[in-house]
Amino acid sequence: MKFCPKCGGVMVPVKQGGKVVLRCTRCGYTMEVGSSRELSVYRVTNVIEHSEKEKTIVISERDVKGLPITRDVVCPRCGWREAYYWVVQTRAADEPATRFFKCTKCGYVWREYD
Ligand SMILES: [Zn+2]
Ligand SMILES: [Zn+2]
Is 94 one of the catalytic residues? Predict the structure, then answer.
């Protein structure tokens, strides 16, 4: 037994123009006998992409309100010895967190290990 490739209905042999064709009982789709393959192989491939979400750190627009201030640093840009700082877990959880600094004077942002 064959099934309609369009609607899945049952194909039955009918005479059409002097030859026998298969005709769908549901939608009327016809196909020639023997010209179509007996089996349609459906290959469903489910590819689930686990895209490692790159964590974007918008450091330049970091809200510094309420951030602690350290005086153990020197701003690489202006030499000021006072900066806000915060800690960001950059990659995997087992990696050490990175400290970021933002100069209280010029607003320059840099990271501890670069
Ligand atoms: Zn059909
Ligand atoms: Zn600075």
Answer: yes
